[in-house]
Amino acid sequence: MREHLPVLQVVLPLVAALLAALTRRPGRAWALALTAAWLVLAIAIGLLLQVLGEGVTSYHLGGWEPPYGIEYRVDLLNAFVLLIVSAMAAAVVPFARTSVAREIAPERIPLFYSALLLCLAGLLGIAVTGDLFNVFVFLEISSLSAYSLVALGSDRRALTAAYRYLIMGSVGATFVMIAIGLLYAMTGTLNMMDLAARLPAVAATRTVPVAFAFLTVGVGLKLALFPLHLWLPNAYTYAPSAVSAFIASTATKVAIYMLLRFFFTVFGAAFSFDVMQLDWILTPLALFAIVLASLAALHQEDGKRLLAYSSVAQIGYIVLGISLASVLGVAAGILHVFNHALMKGALFMTMGCVMYAVGSVKVSAMAGLGRLMPLTMAAFVAAGLSLVGVPLTVGFISKWYLVQAALERGAWPLALAVLLGSVIAAAYVWKVVEAAYFRPPPAGSETREAPLGLLVPTWALVAANLYFGIDARWTAGMAVRAAEAVLGVGR
Amino acid sequence: MRLLGLYNYWIVVGLMMIGFYTMISRGNLVKKLIGLTVFQTSAMILYISVGKVRGGTAPILLDRADVLYSNPLPSVLILTAIVVGVATLAVGLALVVRIHEAYGTIEEDDIHVQDDAP
User: In this predicted structure, what is the pLDDT of residue A87?
Assistant: First the structure.
């Protein structure tokens, strides 16, 4: 049983997705999804403990030896990513029950959970596998289900948002596929570790840099790296609330993991940053993302759209950390992957509460909500402070590491940009807070506080924001060790 | 002559650009999907070309020892990619049907006009 954990991580949600599609009742499908999500979380914790205790776990699918067969390879980095993704799923599924009942027609709810579980299986698959083509297949499983999840939004603009996401996402995935094909043509292998060993011999050809470029653009599209983020704002805005909370906190995070895995493990930091000089591309784009997307967020009149642009900016922080290519920088990036999942999950959940109670997430519709929905808006303020990076929240920890990593390199302008981004974040969070607390509620408003089914998961994530903000030893320690593992130092 | 010898790669590049250009330039949502499919297909031809060994025969095991086989692996991978491509196209077309129901048009410009109207 224990040695089969890596494959169970993927097979379990996959089977549950099938069963959820077969059930006709919303309640049963939800119970199934909940069981699967929590079991997956337990498996992820088990895997992490196993990796911490015994080192890298390698699982051979069907008993075929790598590099001929498919290998699932779990080191500290993917164990951490698996934990993030499954923890977010375990938090979102309880939230979804009440939220989805209001936003999606009952006959579609079993299919909704089926798509959600498929998306989860795809995301976990990307993180767990050590085989390049497997990455592509899981990428498409997660993306295709994400398109249909976005399209379930109640506004008709959800459909056009999903269509745009499909076009741009498919281009990104095809770019990744082309890159994998070119790498296979040069080395004759698809196993990541095998590839890493064989690539240096052929790195001087023209094909390998071309594959590298295709991969960078393809993954860039998937992680919504500025200026390839155009699909993201509408998709997050018009998707059902539970979907926004889930995708915002997992899908782009797994794309970041792909970036780390490809650049550091497969190509190696020396090739990616010394030969290809990737930092000259990533650093400016990350800075543009931080400043321009934050400014765009400031101009939004829709709460979810504001958070979506903020996500683009936060991805900028993560990529900035990675582009420094030092242990501290990569650790700051990985740490922010975890922390940003917590804060954006919580923030999108508060928007789900507002959507449930008010029926709109326009900033103008939130007037006076501080009095009408005190618990929801208090959660928004707490998670918003985390987004800004106020001490005692996880946002502060990420930014502290990021600024340190920048200063370690002597790159104080980068540190300034991080602080500038925080100032703008304070301004756009304030925009919602101002409407909720300093404007009177519309006369005769009968808006009530969101039900407990929504508040409990939201506050659980807010509590995690505060807990890991006060005691960051575990998360920061994990991030540093994962960064050391992926950079190949301190082994 | 060396360039001509790589003609299947030129076909890949040509198809890829045709598909990409169609996706960017056309406002009709179905035509965009056609462009996407052409684009994906070009990547499949790339894989198949990579698997061909000069003088190699179809990779079906024969009883003789001196047979040169083509590499079967890229073809197998592309079978998977074809399934993925079909699924993508199906989801895309389903979305277009829903968009047509909701907006009464599948022209991007008309959809933008309707979305911008209050």
Answer: 93
